[in-house]
Design brief:
Chain lengths: 761, 573
């Protein structure tokens, strides 16, 4: 019973208004329930698209499921497990338009019958050709793998002539029709406006196609009075070009202009507007060679061999040659017969109902190989985070009972593999040393693997491993966007980005144009971030589509304290973890410390740790900012006395120093938030932090109850230092329980992590 | 007695598009709302294409109006258009490139090219770029010779009389031939004088400058004395012809002049009603000290003297500018407030089922995809997801862009509000602002979307989180409020006198108005507006409802009533 109902439901994933007004009533008349998408494709070529909710009431699927479908953007969205469950449970057939993401997602996730609705392309272009050019290399073979439930639903019988493979073999003609609304102005033409109507959109924004059509028209027929309709995203310096107009205005022109000229000689594509002209009863003059000629009878008076003949005929119409006009109007109506409901319905009925009864199959997920790419030889926290990603992939997939293999790529000759990656090796992760090499756009094109839409740079960066260059992987997951030039899109890939500090601290990048980083993330299948503010930056600054940016769970893996024999026995200090980057806000921090010690008579010393922090005292540097920092410190004996700079400490030593501190101090301007405040809380040490969104997020997520200060204001920082000096003991009571923090370890967060990224793989 | 005909005088400069300017939009609103009266538009011929562009952008058909225009274009303009056509096509930026192009067509010029290349070599060093106010091109002692020699030549070149033009141009043709001879002489001289190289480079670089000069849009030459000098003479001649034509139309009792920069309208013998949006010079004399603005001020003073009646859009301008500063009689001034602007009509069109947001996103993306196809940063940007605050305005000294940039930087970098700022001004034409933006590395977050159509303007207004207007002065309650609200977006704006004429709710004033001189106040109000968009929208709804009661039909009717009154008063006298 359920199967019967399911077979009577169609996912009609197209938004073209006129097409819907014909095809959906036809489907309903054949006894189907139809679901229509509620998000539109947003490119300018789809201006005639619209949304229709009117068929929702007749759908017999649960309302909450309908809401989920209505909220989903099929054109640019990823079909997650929830959507996949709904469409596979409730529908047996999908009819969809040719949009790359939509096509890919349906092939990957839909288990029923797939009908690719094709309306024809220009010249000899074929859908198979576009698939080879734009889609991943293996896409055609994926279509062929489901050939038994795939159809190339062509609008005209000759579309498959130029196709090959599955699209040719599975061609099925389902003719286009015209809705009743199309004929609401039937024969209302009066022709009292002495102009030729010509429709030519996007003249400047599509110069090689519509631009040429426009120039041809102007060259041959420009001398005749004319109006050019069609949306123009870029203005055209021609008073005859009227741009985007209201439906009423278009109807008015169809009613009043003397004639329409239709240029297209495309054998496999026909616009609606010449048919509209015929429906209005308006004389139509067109060039031979296109679909109109194929549909009309021989010796159609409106058909012209060339522009010269067209000009002669248009002049006859403009001069009110009654006999010629009558002859035209009489003969051209025959073209419309091909598009009438009865004619089309008969053809649909012969094959369509049988297709929708086909039994669906279950897609078996295959074993995935995922490469975690670390393109920069990071150590410390960044390396730890990258390793955690690999660990969470292993544990998360295991928890979801999905079999995967993880390969970890690290920059060659920087690491001692057995030592640095012992934890990963133990978990079964393969470690591959990688050299990053340039690969040209031409070479990438020659591979035939990459979607040409992504090949928007001259050079790319490719991970090479002296084996197969990670071609054995199904998916790459790159840690950070730092590939310059951009990452070669040889495989579908995701990027995990931690921050966009350069947006907030302009001095960090100065005149550097991070074009390669932008391209790397924009070309990615998804971008993972760990804080909402970085999500905003990925969308608003790096320009990544919002629905591709995923918030991943933060994880914290504590290091236990081991007593240090040679450690300082002094414990009247607070700890400042930093490095030499400008966003660490050293100068204002120094000013604040001066105020704290001089004005507020601060009693605690300041211990400083972190990469390169010994350079605060000395060390040659050509970086202007570091010179300023060194100079400031050397001119302040008080600070030299109070600051104890420890440099970069090993993890265990750092943990010990941290555990002995009265509090942790974090005066950074902005970053993705420091995990050291969580480590501090784990060791019962409270923190004083700059107030920026990422730290607020960490505070909230880990329940740290930190004290916040304004990092832009030295006086405010100093006041808060004093407050911490006085209240650090009381603030320990506000810290979270150790057990609570361990719940957020990578092992515990792995299922959430896997859930967040599985849909992209 | 009801008027049957009203004339509208438009003395716009060539290439001066009003499409994106308040005055152009105001004119269209009035035109489209005027009924039962024939409108005659008097324009110099050079403005006709731009008038069509303006009207088309507002869905108004030119054939609804009678056009009175000059018979032909001045030869100076024709020469410019010819040269632009010749030089623009293949991105010609230097004399060398021009010769290379011509050489492919004309053998004689091929010889010239050969000579040029031999003399100039292939080196491009010492190549200078012409700045729009490049002093090298300006004859500093021009006025001394103007009366005897230069003026007659210029009059000939700028004339639309064929014979006068031909007589004037012959000496130039001779000079051209002499120039070619000079090039050959230079080639000869080179053999004798090795130092010739430097002189030659300078001379030939001047050719390149001329090419760039030709390619420069006229609006960018407004501070160029040389271009201004030529333009003023040409303009006087053409507008004088236009007023002669107007004066032959004796059945048009009244002419409306929508701005005060066209004193030539004083030559119209019929009654003249002139619109005075504001005289901003009165408010900020120190911001308008450049020669260009001083000349504009002189035109205003001259225009005021010739108008029979003045219309302004606020009591503030009436009292502070016209009565106090210019001592104009109160009976000769009328205040006609603007109507409410509804931008939604540009977004809801063909397909009423599509939502405002869908159409807005599509229009916005279409514009951006086309405009930024070759931009390093924006070429592949996901515009659908972009969030921004919007300042729809041109750059003028009192528009307060610098404070807005400072406020935006604080919002972004100290308040961490990660959305962009979009302005509809062409910031790239304003080096001071661009220098600031680049120095602060804000070029990726402050976007200049200039020359947008009404549809794209509507889209920007709809998609903006909020609209901000930090102007130091306006002559009327800013259009930006109703424009934004008509497509669902609240606004915040400067606390300036005209706002108090329109907003009467004191609580609302506290929320939506900021001190435009106080960056922190601007930051606080903007942050609140961004974070409380819906609340601000609800608070502003009564204000919008009240303002939207005043349609442009009302406004047009008030103008017609005023025209009738002025005409009847004259008859009574």
């Amino acid at each position: 019973m359920t199967t019967n109902i399911k077979n009577k439901r169609i996912l009609w994933l197209i938004n073209h208004t006129t097409l819907r007004e014909f095809e959906v009533p036809l489907l309903v008349s054949l006894g189907y329930e139809v679901y229509l998408p509620k998000h539109l494709p947003s490119d300018e070529a789809n201006r005639s698209a619209s949304i229709d909710y009117s068929y929702d009431n007749a759908l017999t699927i649960p309302e909450d499921e309908l809401t989920v479908l209505n909220n989903h953007d099929f054109y640019s969205g990823i079909i997650c497990s929830q959507i996949a469950d709904i469409i596979n449970t409730r529908f047996n057939t999908v009819i969809f338009a040719f949009f790359p993401n939509l096509f890919e997602q349906l092939v990957k996730n839909f288990q029923g019958n797939l009908l690719l609705r094709a309306f024809g392309l220009n010249g000899d272009a074929s859908y198979t050709g576009i698939i080879k050019q734009v889609f991943p290399k293996d896409f055609l073979s994926r279509v062929e793998a489901i050939e038994d439930r795939f159809w190339f639903a062509q609008s005209y019988p000759n579309l498959s002539e130029v196709e090959t493979g599955a699209l040719k073999r599975k061609a099925l003609t389902l003719p286009l029709g015209l809705p009743e609304s199309f004929f609401s102005h039937a024969n209302s033409w009066i022709g009292n406006n002495r102009n030729i109507l010509f429709v030519c959109p996007r003249i400047a924004s599509s110069p090689n196609y519509y631009g040429l059509i426009y120039h041809n028209f102007k060259k041959h027929l420009g001398a005749l009075p004319h109006i050019i309709a069609g949306a123009q995203p870029l203005p055209i310096d021609d008073p005859a070009v009227k741009g985007f107009q209201s439906r009423n205005q278009l109807d008015e022109w169809l009613r009043t202009c003397k004639a329409m000229f239709y240029h297209s000689q495309e054998p496999r594509h026909l616009h609606y507007h010449p048919l509209e002209a015929i429906a209005f009863g308006m004389p139509l003059i067109y060039l031979r060679g296109g679909i109109l000629e194929q549909l009309g009878e021989k010796n159609q008076p409106g058909a012209c061999v060339d522009f010269k003949e067209a000009k002669r005929k248009l002049e006859a119409v403009l001069n009110d040659d009654r006999n010629f006009i009558q002859e035209l109007l009489f003969s051209q109506t025959k073209i419309l017969q091909h598009f009438q409901m009865n004619t089309c319905r008969k053809i649909w009925m012969t094959s369509f109902p049988e297709i929708t009864q086909t039994v669906t199959t279950k897609i078996q997920p295959k074993r995935l190989t995922i490469a975690v790419l670390l393109p920069v030889p990071y150590r410390g926290g960044s390396l730890r985070a990258a390793k955690s990603v690999a660990k969470m992939l292993i544990l998360g997939s295991k928890n979801a009972k999905r079999e995967i293999k993880v390969i970890f790529s690290c920059v060659a000759n920087y690491y001692d593999l057995p030592i640095d990656f012992s934890d990963l090796i133990e978990m079964g992760v393969e470690i591959r040393e990688t050299n990053w090499e340039h690969i040209s756009n031409n070479k990438l094109q020659n591979t035939g693997v990459c979607s040409s839409a992504l090949l928007n740079e001259k050079n790319f960066l490719q991970p090479t491993d002296n084996l197969c260059n990670f071609n054995d992987c199904d998916f790459w997951l790159q840690i950070s966007d730092r590939t310059d030039p951009p990452l070669a899109p040889l495989k579908p890939y995701g990027v995990i980005v931690y921050d966009y500090i350069q947006r907030y601290v302009p001095e960090l990048f100065a005149n550097h144009v991070e074009k390669a980083f932008w391209k790397t993330v924009r070309n990615a299948s998804f971008v993972g971030v760990t804080t909402p503010q970085t999500r905003i930056d990925a969308i608003q600054y790096a320009g990544v589509r919002a629905n591709k940016v995923t918030l991943l769970p933060m994880e914290f893996s504590p290091i236990e304290v081991v007593p240090q024999i040679d450690s300082s026995n002094q414990d009247c200090y607070f700890l400042w973890t930093t490095n030499m980057s400008i966003h660490k806000n050293h100068l204002r921090a120094f000013q604040a410390l001066e105020i704290y010690y001089k004005k507020y008579q601060g009693k605690l010393d300041c211990f400083v740790t972190g990469v390169d922090t010994l350079k605060l005292l000395n060390g040659k540097t050509k970086v202007e900012y570091q010179e300023k920092v060194q100079s400031y410190l050397h001119n302040n004996p008080l600070l030299l006395e109070k600051l104890k700079i420890l440099g970069n400490l090993p993890d265990k030593e750092f943990t010990y120093v941290l555990s002995k501190a009265k509090f942790l101090w974090h005066p950074t301007l902005i970053d993705n938030g420091t995990f050291s405040v969580i480590e501090a809380a784990y060791h019962n040490v409270p923190s004083l932090s700059s107030d920026y969104p990422q730290m607020r997020y960490i505070d909230n997520m880990f329940n740290l109850n930190m004290l916040f200060m304004n990092a832009q204001n030295a006086e405010d920082i100093a006041k808060h230092l004093l407050q911490m000096e006085q209240q650090h003991f009381e603030r320990r009571a506000l810290l979270p329980d150790k057990n609570y923090l361990t719940q957020l370890s990578y092992a515990n967060q792995a299922p959430k992590f896997w859930e967040a990224i599985e849909k992209w793989l | 007695m009801a008027l049957k005909k009203v004339g509208v005088f438009l003395g716009n400069a060539p290439e001066q598009s009003l499409k994106n300017q308040g005055i152009g939009r105001l004119l269209c609103f009035i035109l489209s709302a005027t009924k039962d009266c024939e409108i005659i538009l008097a324009i110099p011929l050079w403005y006709k294409p731009l008038l069509i562009e303006l009207l088309t952008d507002h869905n108004i058909h030119l054939d609804q109006y009678r056009i009175l225009t000059t018979p032909c274009l001045p030869y100076l303009l024709r020469m410019r258009y010819f040269l632009i056509k010749a030089f623009r096509k293949p991105n010609i930026n230097s004399f060398k490139q021009f010769l290379q192009l011509m050489a492919t067509k004309f053998t004689v010029i091929a010889l010239l090219k050969k000579a040029y290349l031999k003399i100039n070599g292939s080196s491009n060093k010492n190549k200078l770029k012409l700045s729009t106010n490049s002093p090298e091109l300006l004859p500093t002692s021009l006025p001394l010779f103007s009366s005897k020699i230069i003026n007659p030549i210029i009059k000939g070149v700028t004339s639309s009389s064929f014979w006068l033009f031909s007589l004037t141009i012959i000496p130039f043709l001779i000079l051209g031939l002499l120039g070619v001879t000079c090039i050959h002489l230079l080639r000869l001289w080179r053999k004798i004088r090795p130092k010739l190289g430097r002189v030659k480079a300078r001379l030939l670089n001047h050719f390149d400058k001329v090419i760039i000069f030709i390619n420069t849009p006229l609006r960018n030459l407004k501070h160029n004395k040389y271009a201004q000098y030529l333009y003023q003479i040409m303009r006087k001649q053409e507008l004088s012809k236009l007023t002669n034509l107007i004066n032959k139309e004796q059945d048009i009792p009244i002419w409306f002049v929508p701005t005060l920069f066209w004193p030539e309208a004083n030559q119209i013998k019929s009654l003249k009603v002139m619109a005075i949006p504001d005289i901003v010079f009165v408010e900020f004399p120190d911001l308008f000290t450049e020669q260009y603005w001083q000349e504009a001020y002189s035109k205003i003073v001259e225009s005021l003297a010739g108008a029979n009646h003045l219309v302004c859009y606020s009591e503030h301008v009436k009292n502070t500018h016209l009565m106090s500063k210019f001592d104009i009689n109160i009976d000769n001034i009328s205040v006609i407030n603007h109507g409410s602007v509804d931008l939604s009509k540009y977004l809801i069109k063909m397909d009423e089922q599509s939502t405002l947001t869908t159409n807005a996103k599509r229009a916005f993306r279409s514009y951006c995809d086309a405009q930024f196809a070759k931009d390093n940063y924006l070429d592949t940007f996901a515009f659908d997801s972009m969030q921004f605050i919007l300042y729809p305005s041109q750059v003028r000294p009192h528009k307060n862009f610098l404070n807005l940039l400072k406020a935006y930087e604080i919002l972004l970098r100290e308040r961490y509000i990660g959305i962009k700022l979009i302005v509809t001004a062409n910031l790239y034409e304003h080096e001071d602002l661009m220098t600031y933006i680049r120095k602060r590395r804000l070029q990726y977050d402050v976007l200049s979307l200039h020359h947008v159509s009404s549809e794209v303007l509507a889209a920007l207004n709809h998609l903006a989180t909020c609209v901000i207007n930090p102007t130091l002065f306006e002559g009327s309650f800013p259009f930006t409020f109703t424009e934004a609200f008509s497509v669902g977006t609240p606004s915040i704006m400067s606390d300036i006198p005209v706002c108090h004429e329109a907003i009467h709710n004191e609580e609302l004033k506290k929320i939506m108005l900021f001190d435009p001189y106080d960056v922190n106040d601007m930051v606080n109000k903007t942050q609140w507006a961004i974070e409380n968009r819906e609340q601000l929208y609800q608070l502003q709804k009564p204000l919008y409802d009240q303002l939207s009661l005043r349609s442009w039909e009302h406004v047009a009717q008030e103008y017609m009533t005023l025209f009738e009154k002025v005409a009847n008063d004259r008859i009574a006298q």
